[in-house]
Amino acid sequence: MPSIKHIPGPYRLFFYSFDCGEPKHVHLQREKRICKFWLEPVHLAKNDGFSPKELNAIRKLIETHLPQILEAWHEHCG
């Protein structure tokens, strides 16, 4: 489960190796909460525990760091 480093905030951003056959996406986790966002375009795929307000902040974080996240996706999934 590779994590994406150097993105500020309380979240762990990561990919599952078995997910590489799906469209580009990223998983985010904070404590026991987890969500999944599609990357092109950026939109919520799944949510387990995050409030709508926090999901909006997460979406903005992803959009801000999208080039770095996509680069990590390509490095991991090809």
Keywords:
78 residues, alpha+beta, five-stranded antiparallel beta sheet, 5 strands, 2 helices
Plain-language structure description:
It is built from 2 helices and 5 strands; from the N terminus they run E-E-E-E-E-H-H. The longest helix has 13 residues, at about 50-65. The chain has about 80 residues and is α+β, with helices and mostly antiparallel strands. It has one domain (about 5-75). The protein starts with a strand and ends with a helix. A hairpin with a 2-residue loop joins strand 3 and strand 4 (about 35-40). The protein has a 5-stranded antiparallel beta sheet with strand order 1-2-3-4-5, with helices on one face.
Q: In percent, how much strand structure appears in the residues? A: 25-35%
Task: Assign an overall shape.
Answer: globular
Tally of alpha and pi helices: 2
Mean pLDDT, as a whole number?
93
Number of DSSP-assigned strands = 5
Helix content: 25-40%
Radius of gyration: 11 Å
